[in-house]
Amino acid sequence: MQKILILRFSSIGDIVLTTPVIRALKTQLENVEVHYATKAKFAQILTENPYIHTLHLLEESDKELIKKLKKEKFDCVIDLHHNLRTLRIKMALGVKAYSFNKLNFEKWVYVNFKINKLPNVHIVERYMATVANLGVKNDALGLDYFIPEKDEIDANWLPESHRKKYVVVAVGGQHTTKKLPTSRLIELCDRIQQPIVLLGGKEDELVGNEIEAFFEKRTNNAPYEEGLEALGKRGVIFNGCGKFTLNQSASIVKRAYAVFTHDTGLMHIAAAFKRQIFSIWGNTTPYFGMYPYRTKFTVFENNKLQCRPCSKIGYNKCPKSHFKCMNDLQFDFYLP
Questions:
Q1: Per-residue confidence (pLDDT) for residue 217, from 0 to 100
Q2: Bridge partners, 328 (sequence order)
Q3: I want to staple 144 with a disulfide (CB 3.0 to 4.6 A). Which of 19, 124, 273, 322 is the partner?
Q4: Domains of the chain (ranges plus CATH)?
Q5: DSSP 49-105
Q6: d(Cα 283, Cα 178) in Å, to the nearest integer?
Q7: Cβ atoms of 142 and 272 closer than 8 Å
Q8: What's 109's DSSP letter?
Q9: Residues pairing with 6 in the sheet
Q10: What is the DSSP annotation of 250-297?
Q11: Distance CA 316, CA 66 (A)
């Protein structure tokens, strides 16, 4: 029995993007156990994955995790994170390791000098290149996401207006400069003209509440009436921000007609379910290779700026203070 350990400790989207590697290793190699190490808070993404033999969780201490991993006597390690933590783990295990090329220098050049030397290759293909020497190839089946039965959302959980057809708008994002301002999210929701489910974590509740309040037709809605009249009051909103777990949100995404999302984890979960995606980009860019994988998608981005990309990840506020990458973004789409 060959035992292989995959390392990827964060974050939601990055872990989902490694699922083709997990599947390919398990289905293309004979007599193999695929193990996966990640942070405990991301365990729910992988607990139902049938291609994983054992999930090893980092709680607090690297030392405790390494102690457990040593007992497994792995034959090789697939490092899809490639940072100091994974370097320590690889050195401690002392077995053959294959490490993902993060292209940090190329990203640095692009961000700082706006010279794009990045390969025109999706990050999944780069993850797959990491295991090429094992004789494993991309099976072209896309991403995986397996939802526990207990987290499948019944249609009756949603308002009657949303039970036949709805669009998801994922309002969250890891950094402010990767997210539309609330006013622009309201504009987007009005343009969609379909029943909308807002999705986001606890940290997105305030934004979700503001959008919901804007479209709520009440006699005491005076602060919003002028804007509602201008936009036509066409948004039919169900605010799910902070109300669902990640897997429950994935279940809602799974049945959505379309998904509007920033560059975030729910975008890649939507891609796993082959949803139609409208992908919204602010200070980062699809050229980093993180666009929706093997599904129909449309990119919204402002390509008229010399300051973009200003980071490979994001900031809490626009370094130039104008935030034109999101404020001047054009929403050009049609939903039948």
A1: 63
A2: none
A3: 19
A4: 2-134 (3.40.50.2000), 151-327 (3.40.50.2000)
A5: -TT-SEEEEE-S-HHHHHHHHHHH--SEEEESS-SHHHHHHHHHH-SEEEE----HH
A6: 6
A7: yes
A8: H
A9: 36, 78
A10: HHHHHT-SEEEEESSHHHHHHHHTT--EEEE-SSS-GGGTTS--SS-E
A11: 34
> Mean pLDDT throughout 214-238?
63
How is the beta sheet containing 32-39 ordered, strand by strand? 54-58, 32-39, 2-7, 76-79, 96-99
- In contact, 142 and 268? CB cutoff 8 Å: no
pTM above 0.85, yes or no: yes
Give DSSP secondary structure letters for 206-229: HHHHHHHHHH---TT-HHHHHHHH
Residue 155 structure tokens: 């249609």
Q: Are 261 and 200 in contact (CB under 8 A)?
A: no
CB atoms closer than 10 angstroms to residue 258: 22
pLDDT band at 61, cuts 50/70/90?
confident
Distance CA 180, CA 130 (A): 34
Which residue bears the tokens 């669902």? Answer: 244
What is the C-alpha separation between 267 and 250, in angstroms, rounded? 10
For the stretch 118-158, pLDDT in tens is 999 999 999 999 999 999 999 999 999 999 999 999 888 89
For the cut 70, the answer to whether the pLDDT of residue 162 exceeds it is: yes
Tokens of 7: 């390392």
